[in-house]
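Ticket #4471: structure export looks truncated?
Reporter: QA, pipeline team
Priority: medium

Steps to reproduce: submit the single chain below to the structure queue and open the exported record.
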Amino acid sequence: MRDVVDEEEGVVMVIREYDPKADRDGTEAVDRECEVGPAGGMSLHADLLGDPVARIRHSPAYLMLVLYVAETSGPGGRIVGLIRGTVKSLATGKSLPGAPAFANVGYILGLRVAPSHRRMGIALQLVRRLEQWFELMGAEYAYMATDKSNEASLRLFTGRCGYSKFRTPSLLVHPVHSHRLRAPRRAAIVRLGADDAERLYRRRFAQVEFFPADIGAVLDNQLSHGTFLAVVDDGYEWRGMEHFLASPPASWAVASAWDCGGVFRLEVRGASRLRRGAAAASRALDRVAKWLRVPSVPDFFRPFAGWFVYGLGGDGDDAALAAEALFVSIVNMARGKAAAVAVEVAALDPLRRRIPHWRRLSCTEDLWCMKRLGGDGHADGWDWARSAPGNSIFVDPREV
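Actual output as written to the record:
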């Protein structure tokens, strides 16, 4: 079924579902035309590997995702817009007794409109069509993430689509050098098996906002490179997960690593020759003199892979130190495999203060927007989209 979007000089825009056989080249072309965001006056571009639905293929169930395209009709018609989305069950971080612990939520990602066809109502109609699909799939809420400086996106979602500004987490990024970063010596790190990791996450994090009901599927995914536990307690002896849950150490933190390079590559474009040359020189010096610990700049000017740290959380007075040890260890583990490692943490998360990162690469205030789809909220008046933020969020790596 096709819907008329708008008419401009006799050209009709239509929206339809993505056809993997006929639309791959057209959707990839739109992706290449659209910038992901600014990077120090330059542009950051993302290229999906393989099928354009790859970025959400790792969602809970393949049938619970969709991609719509907007195209010009008639002879010579071409794809000029696309939107991706998925539906799954997430923890609400409920703030009232009796409020639902989990809700079905639609996530909007990958909204793109070719520069030549903007301001024609295409983005609005793509969002509306995706929201219709969300409701058909039983979603109670819809949310999206954007940079707070993306005025066009904010006008669309908060001004025309009824979304509210919901959460403002920080995306912290650290480059991967040739030399190893130094981790705090007081923290001992244990690698957890997938079953133990799932037990820990479900026991201690099931009430954290956006915790996925299918955490086991995330941990078992081929892109997940392990879960790690850092303990800060001189007298603590690791005796397995059962003992840990029954008698936890004084301070600890847990986190998992995800290889985003298995789905897409990033590339910084528009850098001057001087910037490229200085970055190359820093890498060369780092390779031949690792003991100098040069803060070298990876080759971000060609397609590169990134890793993402997810499920970061902990407890105790020194939990932030344990979190630092985990993040540093994962950065070191990524050497030779990725150019950068990122983590997203809530605005109020006490662990964020010790996460090492480069400000120039990071986004200190990301913006998530949410709205309820139909109805007036919970019977007791509770509405997740209007709730106060907690100290933590669980960022699903399948949606990074």
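Status: closed, not a bug. The export was complete when the record was re-opened. Leaving a note from the reviewer for reference: Helices lie at 24-33, 122-136, 151-160, 194-205, 215-220, 241-246, 273-288, 319-333.
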